[in-house]
Amino acid sequence: MKFDVIVLGGGLAGLSAARDLVAGGADVVVLEARDRVGGRVEQTTLADGRLVQLGGEVIGEFHVAYRALVAELGLTVVPAFPALPGEDTTVLREGRFITDGFGWLSEGDLVEYERAEQAFVNLSREVDPDDPWSHPEASLLDRVSVGDWLRSLDTPPAVLRARNLAMAALGAESIEQTSLLADLRKEAAAGNPGFYDYDRWESHRVAEGSATVALRMADELAHRIRLGTPVTEVAVGASGCSVLSAAGERFESEAVISTLPVAPFRRLKVSGVSGDRLRSLGRQRHALASKVVVAYQDSFWEGNGQNGSAYAETGVMGGTWPQREGIISALVPAERLGPMSATPAAQLEGDLLNEVIGIFGDEASNPEALFIRHWYREPFTEGYITAWRPGDVMAVGPLHGTHDPPFYVAGSDQWVCGYMEGAVRTGRAAARAAMGSNEPVPRAPGR
Ligand SMILES: Cc1cc2nc3c(=O)[nH]c(=O)nc-3n(C[C@H](O)[C@H](O)[C@H](O)COP(=O)(O)OP(=O)(O)OC[C@H]3O[C@@H](n4cnc5c(N)ncnc54)[C@H](O)[C@@H]3O)c2cc1C
Q1: How far apart, in whole angstroms, are the C-alpha atoms of residue 212 and residue 38?
Q2: Same domain assignment for residues 174 and 218
Q3: Counting CB atoms within 10 angstroms of each CB, which of 76, 229, 258, 329 has the fewest?
């Protein structure tokens, strides 16, 4: 079978690339390993009709590529949890605090927090998110962890503790395992207002469900998507490309766009692509995480002055946020996956529920449903979002997010730090590059 372009992976990146290629008149096939589209966006429905997101959910104001796509698909963006009433909850070893932000810090520590944040903003202004390697001290900034950098400023331990709590709630690697340059790059991409901020990164969501974005594109692409087709080999050549599936089916094309997450990509046998590029892709990694979702009839926590957002130091969940009416989401960050994996399966749901009760009180005892999704051990994801340990930005190098025609690389992992914005941004850009155009993203027919 011969196509103009073969797209590997049917997540947001692969689908948005394929949709633009089709709109541009190309003959495209999307090869997707799973029996569903969406990849790291996935949803299920409760008995009462409420959609539950098991993967990616929220977006920020500056997520312009994703927002443009959502508008083209006729879907609606609405405010997400940061706009809800009530205060944050923090569960520390010494007790539970219901107070916004890091209100449990002493006044002196809050001053130090702001001082450290301002130093971070000043440094991030020097970093070009599209080219962090051009910073004159890129190597130095990459070698140091955020934790070591904070200590070099004499930041008090309570502030480091607050930053680690924030990272755990995000399901991200700890500040000790995060490259300063990577973190500066990420916040520079957000317009560098400071440390990671929910108002900036997580202010909105798609009312019809974030996985609906993928489903809508799949409806448009219809027969061009081949589900249940894991790819095992890719051969790239100037006179054509060849892709082999696990079932032994061979697909031929002029060009290939790979949108596979970095770990499954490493398992492919790839030829005809430069060693430098394969080494660069091979050095990328993910933060590993599981997601927990607990569904209740209503947002009972609001009656207690809580907004549903929490930071948790005890237990395995790093924190929570309210996904929508009555539904709490949580992530288990990498450093707590060990204790969770060691928990007997029959005990896990009960333990997780007890953690939610510890945050929201006894009213949390009777959920309608509880979902656990171990993304870190899904063979076609093996992670969550991109993680950058000290040294990783330089090791991956400036090939990050670039192409080797007729081999194109897209997917959220090829943007600064992952996210649905990264998937759509790089997917559409790869389609434009494969069509040999620097023009703005074309619009799909009839939209
Ligand atoms: C729990 C969780 C919460 C998240 N929360 C948010 C959030 O709130 N906001 C946000 O913006 N982002 C969030 N993200 C990240 C976001 O969901 C992802 O970055 C984005 O959806 C990735 O899209 P993608 O197309 O790049 O990759 P993927 O969605 O991973 O798509 C890649 C596709 O390739 C397929 N594949 C893999 N191997 C093969 C193979 N060998 N052959 C063929 N196909 C293959 C996979 O099955 C998959 O469908 C979250 C992610 C997770 C897991």
Answers
A1: 9
A2: no
A3: 76
CA of 38 to the centre of ligand 1 (A): 7
Q: What is the reported pLDDT for 25? A: 97
Nearest to 313 by CA among 152, 102, 55: 102
**Residue in the structure block whose two tokens are 């790239």:** 236
Q: What is the pLDDT of residues 264-314, one digit of tens each?
A: 999 999 999 999 999 999 999 999 999 999 999 999 999 999 999 999 999
Predicted confidence (pLDDT) per residue in 131-178, tens digit? 999 999 999 999 999 999 999 999 999 999 999 999 999 999 999 999
Domain count, the chain: 2
pLDDT of residue 319: 97
Using 70 as the pLDDT threshold, list the residues of the chain that sit under it: 437-447
DSSP code string of 173-223: PPGGGSBHHHHHHHHHHTT--SS--HHHHSSEEETT-HHHHHHHHHHHHGG
Domain that holds residue 174: 102-201
3-state secondary structure of 92: strand
Residue 378: inside a domain:
no
Cβ–Cβ < 8 Å for 58, 204:
yes
List beta partners, residue 236: 241
Residue 443's pLDDT is what? Answer: 37
* pLDDT value of position 438: 55
**One domain, residues 214 and 175:** no
Per the structure block, which two tokens stand in for 348? Answer: 């896990």
Determine the atom of ligand 1 nearest the C-alpha atom of 40.
29
Pocket lined around ligand 1, Cβ cut-off 6 Å: 8-14, 31-34, 39-41, 55-59, 230-231, 259-261, 264, 291, 375, 380-381, 384-385, 411-412, 418-423
| CATH number where 279 lies | 3.50.50.60
Q: Which of 142, 176, 201 is the last residue of a domain?
A: 201
Q: Which atom belonging to ligand 1 lies closest to the Cα atom of 412? A: 26
